[in-house]
Task: structure prediction
Amino acid sequence: MAREFLTIRQMCDTFKVSARTLRFYEAKELLFPCRLGQKRMFTPKDRARMTLILKGKRFGFSLEEIRQLLNLYSIGDRQRTQITTALKLAGERMDALLERRNELNRAIKDLKVEIDAGAVYLAEIENTSDAAQ
Amino acid sequence: MSDERLTLREMCDRFRVTPRTLRHYEYIELLAPEKLGRTRFYGPTEIARLKLILRGRRFGFSLEESRQWLLLYDSDPENRVQMETWIEWSGHQLKELAQRRVELDETITELQRLHDQTVEAYKK
Result:
């Protein structure tokens, strides 16, 4: 099984992705299926790459980052560089997410303050118009 | 001070936005700077409007919502309707932001889990 080539349909079933996604990854040079006439035949290496692509996506990496990570595999240091780089990218993304959460928390806090201030303002003009009557 | 007029460049510097953003807001009729030849000048009204647009954006309001909300200003000298609308919309927006934070928390937890898994797997 491991040595077999897979058709695009089989790849879709194996990885639960659409044919369009696979063609897109090929165009972006993330996958390199062979051609049998018009048909794409995905190699065992493509399958290994696909597993890593999906993992990279779960990490929230861009396709370009994933492409660069995949190319590090060929360095041949038992993936040391590849994994170190992936962890570094994950760290940067984590920092960005935490910063976004901080900003979100600030926005929520400020919005609450503004709603309260608005309610006070409305109560005041209500009083003023009552007093005028 | 109240009749100050800023150029596009000065607006960008003060509000930390790009020229492209300001031109876009003008294109969708959120801002209407005075034009002298090809130079744009932003008076107190435009400055106030931009402040409100950016405030709305920070709280996650769409530009269309900001546009509708700004329209209320002209018809309403006391700002009563505008303020009531603001409070009502903000209540919804607060829920929306809270939901975003839940999703963000999930993403952060998932990323941390993946990170730890990878480190664990590599140790072996």
Q: What stands out?
A: Chain A touches chain B through 29 residues (CB under 8 Å). The domain at 8-75 of chain A is CATH 1.10.1660.10 (Multidrug-efflux Transporter Regulator; Chain: A; Domain 2). DSSP finds five helices and two strands in chain A.
